[in-house]
Amino acid sequence: MSAIIIDGESVAAKMRTRLIEEIDTLKKKGYYPHLKAIQVGENAASRLYVQNQQKQCEEVGIKYTLDELPADTKEGALIEHIKKLNNDHQVTGIILQMPLPEGIDAKKAQILIVPQKDVEGMNPANMGELVYGNTRLAPCTAMAAVELVKSIGVEIKGKVATIVGRSAIVGKPVSLLLLDLSATPTICHSGTKDLSAQTKKADILVAAIGKPEMIKGDMIKPGAIVIDVGINRVKELDIQGNQIINPKTGKPKMKTVGDVEFAAAKEVASYITPVPGGVGPVTVVMLLRNTIEALKMSVHQ
Prior knowledge:
Layout: E1 4-5, H1 8-28, E2 34-40, H2 44-60, E3 63-69, H3 75-86, E4 93-96, H4 106-110, H5 124-132, H6 140-151, E5 160-164, H7 171-180, E6 184-188, H8 195-199, E7 204-207, E8 225-228, E9 232-235, E10 254-257, H9 262-265, E11 271-272, H10 279-299
Parallel strand pairs: 1-11, 2-3, 2-4, 5-6, 5-7, 7-8, 8-11
Antiparallel strand pairs: 9-10
């Protein structure tokens, strides 16, 4: 029996509806959310992400503005700009678009965003709150992965959870969020011996390793809940394993896949997220949710 597909678009739509109601209530009390994005230089992928952010914010009633800084902006100038926004009471949330030009330390710049405006949950103070179980602002992708597990209504307490990937924005915070829900998490990474032995134990398997279709169907425990965080662009192949060429461009056709071999995994798992259409839509809504949470934090300072 094939797994039930966890529809990220549907989960995101329900979350947006709740956010719209909450935003309306805040506005009636005189509190207005304003998310400020900073982009340094031009980047096509970042530009698309900015446009999506703006569209999503406008749909729920969050003011969204973009500060575009030239590509030759120095690290010191960016830091001063961030400090200015930290002190701007009209700005309730700040997001720093990636990638940044060479010569700017992304981590250094990102952690200068004050905790109460850190809508990406990357400030060490917010990470520390996550460790203590006082989660207010946490990394959006990690929260999205856990929200998708919660959305199916299963009991998380006591479940064995295996997270493949140890990044600061997904692997580590996912493990803490699941631990806070009384699951028993294990983090696997490039140094893990016999990865398959670990993944086969998992009642909840979160794949966030950044390698296309690395998690095969035979690495999954029957009946597991599989959350695929990976987004990978790969060349499309025909049944003989040859590249498919786009007749219009003459270039190889590309497709988006996750870190899990979806076709095989869905025949083993009980629930699984697709790529695209799984974690991605919920991640964007988590950014909106964090923006509202940041506003509420500023109100109660």
